[in-house]
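Any chance you could type out some protein's one-letter sequence along with its backbone structure tokens so I can compare the two?
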Amino acid sequence: MNGQAVFLILIFAAVFAAGQGVFGLFTAANQKRLVNKRLKVAEKVEGVSALVMELRKQRGLNAEGRRGERLRWLSNMIVASGLTYEPRKWALMAVSAALAAGAAVAIVAKQPLVAIPVAVVVGLGGPLAVLKFKAAVREKAISAQLPQALDIVVRSLEAGHPVPTAVSLVGREMPDPLGTEFGMAADEISYGATLEQAVERMAERCQHADVDLFAATIRLQERAGGNLTGLLKLNANTVRERHKMRLKIKAASGEGRASAMILTAAPIITIAFVMLTSPHFYGDVINEPMVKWGLTGLATWLVIGNLVMRRMINMRI
């Protein structure tokens, strides 16, 4: 074997070792990231009471673990999103995004008056869109995680552990979002709440039909008695089948959703491209009444079409 071959082998070994090292770093970082939020908060506070209060504060809940009565719809979105409640930071980000969007429109379109409504829409609608998106992502994660969480509870009960211990086990072993939710339920039980109250509050935080079913199962067993392990096994099987049905519906409506996105994006992209490449195409006639009414009609039909397509593809079980 000549020197050049040895040199190439050493280079390959060095590159391979570097790749393994980078892969290991990313894997370790990913595993660390999977630790749920509650466990991270628990490392920074002392005592169950301080942990419960801090977790409630971060979720935008009051001291009793309830949502605010004012602007109830907004409070529901904040809790369902699972984001850490930081109103000052959110307000600063919303104002910054609004100013940036308004400045961009004013520079590109050269119409400062148009920038004002754009800034208002971005500043108010942007945060709501983010909350809604995060809530949808979290809802899908809950659907995927809940059968596994119920299986952990069932196995723990079969091993002879009490229900609060089984709930606490899920809070320690699972990542977010259910890891934190079950952990908060376990902390509330340690703080003095009953199992039924803790699970009911967890259902209110999750705002998910499958978690509501789990809470109803616990409530039924607490009031009427019975074999909780058997009920939870049936509950887990029901949740798993419902999740499979959701995936089948998503697959069946995939073509419709793709068509809806294309039909929605095509006119918007076309108008934006025309405005950027030929600003005078609409700019010279934008003040004509016929053009204004025509563009308004097109925008109206676009919105109506989107609503119709959404009703056609938005199937829930």
Summary: The two ends are 67 Å apart (CA to CA).
